[in-house]
């Protein structure tokens, strides 16, 4: 059976934690001034995230049911604003493909699944952020047809 993408379950927590460590390493290596070596979520936090319909998390599993990638999402809608239109966005907080599965279209599968899910849910768009210190992620998302819609800038003091 080929790779499949599905909603994350509690049994996936150990594998997701390992993927979160890989994501953190990329960010820490690129910006050690901003990122500590840590895991973004605890097991208990993941349980709560997985159970919340407003924060869907998807995993991609290989033919042996091993988790080889994940996609964390958050539904967003502007609140108390006179400037922004009332749209629902599915924000992609994180996509990670296991180092051993890169180049096998896992990231594309997760992304395409998220886009289909967002359409089914009536979202206007999907958005995500990419750190400048991760040019391979930027190139990956551009290949998928994403375009910048805002840019964050900084001056270190």
Automatic annotation (TrEMBL):
The keyword Acyltransferase applies. This is Ribosomal protein S18 acetylase RimI. The keyword NADP does not apply. It comes from Ruminococcus albus. It holds the Pfam family Acetyltransf_1. Keywords: Acyltransferase, Ribonucleoprotein, Ribosomal protein, Transferase. One of its GO terms (cellular component) is ribosome. InterPro entries: Acyl_CoA_acyltransferase (IPR016181), Diverse_Substrate_AcTransf (IPR051016), GNAT_dom (IPR000182). PROSITE patterns: GNAT (PS51186). Residues 3-157 form the N-acetyltransferase domain. One of its GO terms (molecular function) is N-acetyltransferase activity. Gene3D superfamilies: 3.40.630.30.
């Amino acid at each position: 059976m080929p790779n499949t993408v599905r909603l994350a379950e509690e049994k996936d927590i150990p594998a997701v934690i390992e993927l979160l460590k890989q994501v953190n390493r990329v960010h820490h290596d690129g910006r050690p001034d901003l990122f500590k070596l840590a895991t973004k979520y605890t097991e208990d936090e993941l349980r709560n995230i997985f159970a919340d319909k407003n924060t869907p998390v998807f995993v991609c599993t290989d033919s042996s049911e091993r988790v080889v990638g994940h996609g964390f999402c958050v539904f967003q809608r502007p609140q108390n604003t006179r400037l922004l239109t009332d749209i629902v966005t599915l924000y992609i907080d994180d996509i990670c493909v296991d180092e051993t599965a890169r180049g096998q279209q896992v990231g594309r599968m997760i992304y395409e699944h998220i886009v289909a899910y967002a359409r089914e849910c009536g979202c206007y768009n999907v958005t995500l952020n990419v750190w400048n210190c991760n040019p391979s992620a930027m190139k990956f998302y551009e290949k998928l047809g994403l375009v910048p819609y805002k840019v964050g800038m900084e001056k270190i003091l």
